[in-house]
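<tokenise_the_fold>
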Amino acid sequence: MPKKSETYYSMWEGYDLERERVTMCKSQAAFASMLGMSHRMYCYYERNEKKIPKSVEYAVRYIVRRAGDDQPVGKAKGTLTDFQRTRIEVLSDAASKACNDEQNPSTKKILQQSSEELDFLLSKFDK
């Protein structure tokens, strides 16, 4: 089984975050807001005081890619079919329920994060 550091944290360093932020002509506070985190936490990452989670790297890549598309960052392209939306909702509910029943703390955390990510994904599409 891989160590958490091999699966959870990005290979990025603070200068990678700074490079992307500067490329987009954003202040630290503005970029942190775009990522949905506090300015303080963003600064920890950019100064290499904390390891950068893969989720932050992926969010930065998404924001940069969307900025190049001239699309608003808040909404996903396209729409979900009723079938797709139902499948995601059922999976999110199942992960949430399994999270409450599971005894293993790491499995519980993965299920909880999966449920939250699926809910976040659904929020990106217009109903």
Summary: The chain is about 65% helix and 0% strand. The chain has two domains: 4-68, 82-123. The chain has a mean pLDDT of 78.
